[in-house]
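Bench notes, afternoon.
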Amino acid sequence: MAAVGGGLREAFEAVAPFAPLACTVLTDDQLVGAAQAVEDLARQVEGMQLAIAREVDNRTDETLGEESLARKLGARKPWGALETVTRTSAKDARERVVEARRLAKLPVLEAAVEAGVLGRAQAAAIMEPLLPATERADTALVEAACENLVDLSKVLPATAVVDAAQAWALVLDPDGVEPVEKAAVEKRFFRLGRAKDGLVKFSGALPVEQAAAIRTVLDAYVNPRAGASVRFAPADDDGATADHGEHADAAPVTEAAANGAAGEGGEAPAAPSGTPMLVATETQPPTDMRTPDQKRADILHAVFTAAARAPETPSMGGAHPTILVVVPKEDFDSGHGAARIDGEDEPISATTAKRIAETGGYQEVQVDSAGKILNLGDTKRCATPWQRKALAVRDKGCIIPGCTMPARWCEVHHIQPDRDGGPTDILNLTLLCWWHHATIDTGPYQLRMGEDGTPEIRWIFGSHATEWVKAIHKPRHALTTAA
């Protein structure tokens, strides 16, 4: 314990001139000085609190038996012992022990907290994005990240350091976004409550790309100028544009601005492994295992994305409400790494960015280390409004058997992927709802284009496969099994 709280005396001496504290009579300079001195003292105390919590936890190891400190104090767990001796709440005692355990995984951060350099709030802001990435990252790089973030925390508030911590997390584990994204898709929901006093409450949670699509439409109605940004490509006859936000990089990089128009973008990754959302057997067609809350969330997203395409929807910067996704070109090409949706705090995976781009199109933008634009590539788009109309006439809606999503709520899908050279023409396009579009590459369904120019579908279970049949929108299953 001698190494903890070494700056406590100095912190007390800095606070002493203000004690007892009479804030109303302090000058501005004195008030600022008092605020800083008190926080320095608080950080010293918090460092000691967590060090004590860690040691209480160590002395309550189950292998100690009757020598366990918690047992001596009549408690079963270390936080119970801490609650007893400190008279803090059970919640706070448990949080201290848990924080101490988490800090032990980041020794540089732990040392900074115990030295009073960081407070609990600052440490938590750094740990939250960093810890998941450390499991697969190089130890030396993790230490470098912590040292950099500790230095930033000395001059920046905790909320500002969060962005830097998230950036470091992507450096430590570029593919770490994808499992988080998959878990988020599984947890999505939208729910309407019962009427009370003339009001109906609703609640929900949406993946980042679904929320971004809805947000752009709401922003367009609330304030048509709110999302206006730099226009890179001139408007086409359908009014679509390729927009780009402010995303600076530390080194020269080519970025693909994946312009998933809110009406057509918003792909999501497949459901997490071990939690199948489409279940099939040898004799039964795939069953949609989404919960009602998840289906309502998907429908809400579909309604808003369809609204983004409507002519009466206010434009933003001369274009329909558009999701702007920025991703380094090498990550876009490989499908590994992370991307950013303009206006959203958390990243999405490069895989999701590719899916958004498949539907909404993209434009390559080359920038230098200072963020100066060096070159604008050609805009590469998906289906035109006229192609969408033709697909609506042909497919009528999502072509997955049993799906009732109408054409106006569907997304355009390349049967032969665009990344594999698949052309963007009617003979290679079809309509899928957001969910089936997100799972078509990993689910049991397979698609192909028939000789007569209409899509065909079958499903696979092990070595069993159905016959290929016409894939026209029909709410009821019409597939039969075949070996």
